[in-house]
Every structure is written in C-alpha cells, then in structure tokens.
Amino acid sequence: MRHMKNLAGQSLVLVMLLVSLSTLLVLGSARSKGNFTKEGWIVGYQMGTITAPSDIRLKLTVVDQEAKSKVAGLIFSIPSGNLAAVYIDEKEWRRSSLMAQMPRSGCHYAELLFHDQMTSLANTPANSTIMALPASRNVAGAFSESILVHHPIALFWHEGMTQEAAVVDVNECEYGPLVALLQIVSGARWADLEHDWSTVKPGHAPAQSNEFSIQIDRRTAVGTAFLNLGTYRVSWVDGPGSKKILMFFDFKGRLAVLARAHATPVTNRPAGILVHYTSGSPTASLERIETPVFALTLEN
Predict the structure, then answer these.
(1) pLDDT single digits (tens) 60-106
(2) Domain check: are 193 and 232 in the same one?
(3) For 152, how many CA atoms within 13 A lie in the half-sphere containing its CB?
(4) What is the pTM of this model?
(5) Of all helices (H) and strands (E), which one includes residue 54?
(6) Structural domain of 45
(7) CA distances from 23 to 94, 107, 108, 210, 254 (A)
C-alpha cells in the first residue's frame, strides 16, 4: 500500500513538472523575443456572456493599456477599473499559493509566471487590462493539463452600459498566483470585488438578501444554455443601472447557467417566487422571474 502511495505521489510530481517545463519554455521564448502575448495563464472557458465555444482554451495575460492596443484577435479584454466582481475559491487560493512558493513542488513555475507578469506591468498595475486570446498547448502541456485538478474563477465586468461575465477553469498550480495577480491589479477595490463561491452555492451558506430558489418544471432555455427540471438557487451580480447577471446553481452546487437580466419594481408583490415562460418547441424559454422585491426580465 505504501509503495502504491509513493508511485501515485511520484506520478503527480511528474505531471506538475511537465506543466512547469512547457510553461518555462514559453517564458524563455517570450523574454528572448520581447513578446508579452506568449506569456500567460492557460485556462478553459466554461461559460459566460461572450461569444465563444464553451470548450475553448484561452490564454489570460495582464498588460498595460499601451500594450493592449497592439494586440489583435482578442476573445475579450477587461480594463482593471471595469471589474465588477470576482468569484473564487478562497481555500484553493491559499493552497495553490503555498504550492507555487515551494521550489520543489512542481508548481513553482506559476510563481515565476506571476513575477514575470508583475515585471511587465512595471509601476502601472492599476491601469492594466486583462486580456484573453485563443491558446494552444503542446502535447506534454495538454496531457498534464488534463490530469491536474481545475477550479473556477468568475469575472464580471462592464463595458459602458453592457454587463459581461466569463467563468474560466484554472489548474491547481496556477490558481493561487493568478488570483494574487487579479488582487494586485484591482488595488483597494479588491475587498469589494472578491467573493468566495461558498457564499452563493446551495448548501454552503444561508440564503442572503440577493439570493432565492426557483423550481423549473420543464426543460427551459436560458440564453444559449438549458436548465432541466429541478430546483435552482439564483444569485446575481449588480451591473449598471437596473442590469444584473444571474447565476443559476443546481442542487449539487454547480454553476449551471449565467444570464443577463434587468430588474423592475413590482406593483403587486407575489407571496413567493413566480416563474414565467415563453412557450416554445421542443423547449420553453425563461422569460421573467417575479420576487417580492422586483421582477427580473431575462435577455434571451
């Protein structure tokens, strides 16, 4: 049994070393060519309001405003001052940060990538932009990424009066250093922007004033995604004016759907939560949710 545990531990270290090697080679190439777009965090796009396939691999990098203007082919970009909320796993943030600081952990490359990004920002982290570009992985990198555990980070931001959101999966080596970078570029606003997933997931915390549960009684389209029959916990992030982005969590606490909505006061307050559908075949669409406080009309 002890022998099997040792083999498992050695395999994990080998996987992490493969990730480390492939990333360090990229860092070295980027430094030699002076190309900041070669440096970045490889993440998986899970869902959001942007137009992109749900399984696309992205390269996140943080640059100053001048550098951002020279980049083409962006999937999305977020000026740090436009961030409205960041949802993270605080426990994983601490664990990942500790692993990255250990030179022999196999995750130390992520700490080096963090410092590399900070160096490129020089003295202007508060005026930086978070960019996402299409990413590619070599064979070793793709294999190691498929074995490592991944954890979600949700980014909410606004562009004028339009609210946007993107949920990305980050591997356990890079999670902590990437969150630390987001904290630095957010500056003093981080205390208001950062939220732990446990505060909104069902079964982890009591319902707050901006949360409620709904019962979906038919297969329902919400934006470009679908909800099956069942109970969902709904939370939201406030946007400009009356705009909001709703988060639907299933009974297992998994984020199922993100959807834009706008809120209006209700004249006749319902006793509970009322769900309104638009008929369709083979599925209906979620049109409006009425709460005792306001009505939420979805943008499908």
Answers:
(1) 998 887 666 677 788 999 999 999 999 999 999 999 999 999 988 88
(2) no
(3) 19
(4) 0.82
(5) none
(6) 2-199
(7) 22, 10, 11, 41, 30
